[in-house]
Design a protein that fits this description.
Blueprint: H1 2-13, H2 16-19, H3 25-37, H4 50-64, H5 69-72, E1 77-81, H6 88-105, E2 109-113, H7 121-131, E3 135-138, H8 149-155, E4 159-161, H9 167-176, E5 180-182, H10 189-201, E6 207-211, H11 215-230, E7 237-240, H12 249-258, E8 262-266, H13 269-281, E9 287-290, E10 308-312, H14 318-329, H15 338-358, H16 362-368, E11 371-373, E12 376-378, E13 391-397, E14 400-402
Parallel strand pairs: 1-2, 1-3, 3-4, 4-5, 6-7, 6-8, 8-9, 9-10
Antiparallel strand pairs: 10-13, 11-12, 13-14
Length: 409
Amino acid sequence: MLDDYMAAKHYVFHNEAVFSSGVLAPIGVAVAAMVRIGCSATIRGTGIPARMLRRMLLSFLVGLSPAYPALAAGPKIALVAPQTGPFAVLGAQMRDGAALAARQQGLEFAVIDETCETGSGPAIAREIRESGARAAVGFLCSESLDGALVVLAEAGIPALSLSVRWKGVREDAVKNGWPFFRMAPATEDEAAKLAEVILRDWSGDAFALIEDGTIHGRELAETLRNTLEERGLKPVFTDTFRPGQEQQVALVRRLKKAGATHVFVGGDRNDVAIIARDGAAENIPLTLLGGESLNAADRPVPLADGVRAVILTGEDQPAANEVAAELQGAGVEPEGYVLPAYAAVTVVVQAAGAAAALGMPLAQAIGETHVDTVIGPIAFDESHELSENPYRLMEWRGGRFVEPSNAAR
């Protein structure tokens, strides 16, 4: 890290005329402060973590970049996404979002086909390197990263995945110092947010944990139960229900017999909709909460108003509405990976501007920069995971998920 800051110092001294006056003077102030921070763990005499102040200064530069073309000029970016095969529709979503962002920024943009086949990683990395890209985004499949990250690290090319949640990728990247950043949530984030909601909102209620017997549903309910019991909160009822049934009357009656009024359901959207419908028909009031699986098509049984879910959202940002309107005008629906891909390009471009001003590696700037995007603020922790849990508590009302009216988030 010392080399990084010596490079920044060298950059400032050899561009003194540029950074000492005129419109770039504020940037000179930020750069000078960055150099003074150096590689200290804390700012001398304050106890403030140096990483925190570096992040603040980088964010300051990011905020200035739209006004100063020298900072806003972005690097060539590679998009790694499936172009053919069963995942081509998801690849098209990534391509549509990233292409719009690149076009708006005037960037060169290379598309690298992602086959999602075992052993494909090294070839993908070579294509990225040969394309001249300074960063790569996308990466739907973990197979594409296996063997690719070491090659990209040697070339100094950071990789941002929109999809891969597998723990092993993160652990290998941290251990080896590879510049891998994950814009997808970590595997434990969903359970962590659900536990937070239940501890906060249901601590005085009789609640149940039920799941559909699938691996995800069972693991989610078990993780929740362990977390809650460690905090002294125990369910009055737990059960594994049979999914895909036309009715769940017997289940809601068992819930009533157990005294449960609040129920977490580790199951898909239609099963939750049937439980809500049958509870209402039996005059058994139930407050229902689910996970990310509830963010799906509202059919065949419509979801009742009032059902809550912890889901990934953020597309209600004002900037997202503008981008969505432009996409729709071009015949593209802003669904799936469209807006996340747009956001990934935004992160790289704005971090690149700050990195250029400070003479630091792009990967370091990505890791220490806070960027406002169409899917909400993006910042990474020291493990290159999202610094904030991206899941939010939402409530189904009037045909869409909205912010709950009577709960803190």
